[in-house]
UniProtKB/TrEMBL annotation:
CDD domains: MopB_3 (cd02766), MopB_CT_3 (cd02786). SMART domains: Molybdop_Fe4S4. This is Putative oxidoreductase YoaE. Its cofactor is Mo-bis(molybdopterin guanine dinucleotide). One of its GO terms (molecular function) is oxidoreductase activity. Gene3D superfamilies: 2.40.40.20, 3.40.50.740, ADC-like domains, Dimethylsulfoxide Reductase, domain 2, Formate dehydrogenase/DMSO reductase. Keywords: Iron, Iron-sulfur, Metal-binding, Molybdenum, Oxidoreductase. Belongs to the prokaryotic molybdopterin-containing oxidoreductase family. InterPro entries: Asp_de-COase-like_dom_sf, MoPterin_dinucl-bd_dom, Mopterin_OxRdtase, Mopterin_OxRdtase_4Fe-4S_dom, Mopterin_OxRdtase_prok_CS, Prok_Mopterin_Oxidored, YoaE_C. The gene is yoaE. The lineage of its organism: Bacteria, Bacillati, Bacillota, Bacilli, Bacillales.
Length: 680
């Protein structure tokens, strides 16, 4: 392959590496060996040349003064950010000699890798690192911080992460954006909906916040947090009651619809209104629109599933398209996540066979607890592709754990993140434009290989390269550690359980900017549920002790404090990424706490006041945004602000480290707080 690196100037196709469903095609403009501009690739069939503001300003992040250039070792106290330059040899030697002595004295389970999708490249996230830690016999991480609860819930109904092809949704006549702030988090779904709108489509947003997406809608339905399953059940009640269901579809493609018909009788509009805060006439109107307009498409977001009851809620919403037979309409149905369609050969990528004996699994949502309370203890933490000191729930507990003097921490990142400030050794990472990887979207059906566009910045190394060095220094010389990047990509694509991906070759991805997997439509067909049908009644759930029919379950009683605190994503950052980049911080202005005017006036809080939200887990200072953007009893913030930008705005200091009803998922949005004015 002729490397684009060798060409000093030109325009090169690329792909966005961030954890975002759109996975945009990019064009990288290069002059004299440096990136000068990043824009959307107009040839990409889904993203069509449009990209978000975040990535349009990505160049500044790549060449940011603050970017890590070489390995560092800590010379001050943990958290104090005092480091000294060391060589790669010293870094690798220090890490592996620590690991060897930990393994000799306490066993490899005392080592915990912690990572997520700061870069979505599959070999950098799921490849060499998993191989190394499997071979070592380290503790294994449960990757549950994002969509685990909803994925399990959706899976009971639909048999896996399979939904509508987003390109088809241009034909929809009704869009329900359900707990997704798509204008900020899935912008091309919005672009497609806009096209459909020109053909008469209506857009409904169901959310707890009158945000950018709500303001874009034809109809915004505010709902109380954590009550969405009740609303969906109320819609089902009306659909059955008014004969708006597709009996033929129910009979042919679902299990348990007669039981469901009886079951939803209890969810009358009056009952549902008292749970959700949605007026009876709006529940009726919503159900009738959904029953009468076709094709109808539901885009299910992270909002409803980052709650204690998130799994059951998503399982319940996922039943709706079956009632009206929407899965047979082009563009109808739902998307929660489409990752199943592009699933890769996980075994080949991660090589679980290298693990000799089964090792303990540690839920990433309980990192603080794991570092402070686990017995036998964790002695070494290796973090990459993630910033848990900011993004993980109960962040103060996480930081207390990282503060432990006897914990040896390594952080591999592009920046000296809040997490890195607790590290003993910091390793500099390449950006996605500096190394090769395979990208597959969890929304559309395209795969793409990122060929390196520029040379690695200073002494930066990719995840895969660092893991290779570590494996070598550990004395692991098996083939999996010798595979090249291209070998690994080939192995990942070769998935016998997923023919549409298996037929895509490395060569095809090298030759074309992107390739669409030839995904078969879900219907007519057999799902991957036990019955092969949409399971309105699920025996699998029953066996696990869940109600077998979709059900409203309430949030767990948190501390008895007056407000439910919903700390969501914001427009100009991506999780904590960009929270340390000046341009993005400036665009986002200041971290706010949205509250209802009725609550604010009772507490003597005016718009623009400095306020403190607190509970027994921590405290967080924000600027009050008073109005009617949230219902009374709810306070909401946007963005995972970095310490550097606003010292006290660590929203995750308040979030619970309880796990959700399914998937051991996160419950970021189910914590309660008190709020008070900060007197300056
Ligand atoms: N700009 C930007 N884009 C991103 C990200 C980012 O941080 N910034 N993050 C990326 C990642 S990793 C992910 S997982 C996705 C997440 O993207 P989204 O799915 O949009 O997730 P959130 O923004 O967490 O929450 C979605 C919406 O749910 C609402 N909400 C909260 N609780 C409830 C509830 O109980 N019911 C209802 N109906 N709504 C509720 C919130 O107000 C919010 O508008 O976005 C990705 N894209
Ligand atoms: N309160 C609250 N908390 C949340 C959420 C929320 O909505 N509210 N959302 C949750 C969700 S959905 C998610 S997915 C998580 C996301 O949490 P994380 O996965 O931790 O996401 P980021 O904060 O973007 O951190 C990614 C880090 O990876 C680094 N990185 C990027 N590329 C590379 C690379 O190639 N190699 C290495 N070694 N590092 C790299 C980046 O510089 C960045 O510091 O946060 C969760 N936390
Ligand atoms: S963050 Fe999302 S919208 Fe922005 S360029 Fe990347 S994939 Fe596209
Ligand atoms: Mo996420």
């Amino acid at each position: 392959m002729k490397s684009t690196i060798d060409q000093q100037s030109g325009v090169f196709p690329s792909v966005c590496s961030l954890d975002c469903p759109d996975q945009c095609g990019l064009l990288i403009h290069k002059e004299s060996g440096k990136i000068v501009k990043i824009e959307g690739d107009p040839n990409h069939p889904v993203t069509q040349g449009a990209i978000c503001n975040k990535v349009r300003h990505m160049t500044e992040r790549i060449y940011d003064e603050k970017r890590l250039r070489y390995p560092l070792k800590r010379v001050g106290k943990k958290g104090d950010n005092q480091f000294e330059r060391i060589t790669w040899e010293e870094a690798i030697q220090t890490i592996t000699s620590n690991w060897k002595s930990v393994i000799a004295s306490e066993g490899a389970e005392a080592i915990l890798p912690y990572s997520f999708y700061g870069n979505m490249g599959r070999i950098g996230t799921e490849g060499m690192g998993r191989r190394l830690f499997n071979r070592m016999g380290a503790s294994r991480l449960i990757y549950s911080i994002c969509e685990a609860a909803g994925t399990e819930g959706y899976g009971y109904t639909m048999g896996g992460s399979y939904g509508t092809d987003p390109e088809d949704t241009v034909h929809a006549k009704l869009f329900i954006m359900w707990g997704i702030n798509a204008v900020s988090t899935n912008m091309h779904q919005v672009t497609i909906a806009e096209k459909a709108r020109k053909n008469g489509a209506k857009i409904i947003v169901i959310d707890v916040h009158n945000n950018r997406t709500a303001r874009w809608a034809d109809w915004f339905i505010p709902i109380l947090p954590g009550t969405d399953s009740a609303l969906a059940l109320g819609m089902m009640h009306i659909l059955f009651d008014e004969g708006l269901v597709d009996e033929a579809f129910l009979q042919q493609y679902t299990t348990g619809y007669e039981k469901l018909r009886e079951h939803v009788k209890q969810y009358s509009p009056e009952v549902v209104s008292s749970i959700t805060g949605v007026p009876v006439e709006d529940i009726l109107k919503l159900a009738r629109m959904y029953g009468e307009i076709t094709p109808a498409f539901i885009r299910i977001g992270n909002g409803p599933q980052h709650h204690d009851n998130g799994g059951m809620t998503i399982r319940t919403i996922a039943c709706l398209p079956a009632l009206t037979g929407q899965w047979l309409q082009q563009g109808g149905g739902a998307i929660k996540g489409n990752g199943g369609y592009l699933s890769l050969n996980k075994r080949a990528l991660e090589r679980p066979d290298l693990l000799k004996t089964s090792t303990r699994k540690i839920n990433m949502n309980l990192l603080g607890q794991a570092l402070l309370e686990l017995d036998p203890p964790i002695r070494s933490l290796y973090v990459y592709n993630s910033n848990p000191a900011v993004v993980a729930p109960h962040a103060n507990k996480v930081r207390d754990g990282m503060q432990r003097e006897d914990l040896f921490t390594v952080v591999h990142d592009l920046f000296l993140t809040e997490t890195a400030s607790y590290a003993d050794i910091v390793l500099p990472a390449t950006s996605s434009f500096e190394n090769m990887d395979l990208y597959s979207s969890y929304w559309h059906h395209y795969l793409q290989i990122q060929k390196p566009v520029i040379e690695p910045y200073e002494e930066c190394k990719s995840n895969v390269d660092v893991f290779r060095l570590l494996a070598q220094a550990m004395g692991f010389d098996e083939q999996p550690f010798l595979d090249t990047d291209e070998d690994m990509i080939g192995q990942a694509l070769d998935n016998p359980n997923n023919p549409p991906v298996q037929e895509i070759t490395v060569q095809a991805l090298m030759d074309h900017e992107f390739v669409k997997a030839k995904v078969k439509p879900l219907f007519p067909g057999k799902l991957r549920t036990p019955s092969g049908k949409i399971e309105l009644y699920s025996e699998a759930m029953e066996r696990k002790g869940y109600p077998p029919l979709p059900t409203y379950t309430s949030l767990v009683e948190d501390e008895s404090l007056p407000f439910l605190f919903v700390p969501t994503a914001n427009h100009n950052f991506l999780n904590s990424t960009f929270g340390n980049n000046e341009k993005h911080v400036k665009l986002e202005k200041t971290p706010k706490l949205h509250m209802n005017i009725a609550d604010a006036s009772r507490l003597g809080i005016d718009n623009g006041d400095a306020v403190r939200a607190f509970n027994e887990r921590g405290s967080c200072e924000l600027t009050a945004a008073v109005g009617e953007d949230v219902l009374p009893g709810v306070v909401l913030s946007q963005g995972l602000w970095s310490d550097a930008a606003k010292g006290k705005a660590l929203v995750n200091s308040l979030t619970p480290d309880r796990v959700a009803d399914m998937g051991e998922g996160a419950t970021f949005f189910s914590g309660r707080v008190q709020v008070e004015k900060v007197n300056s």
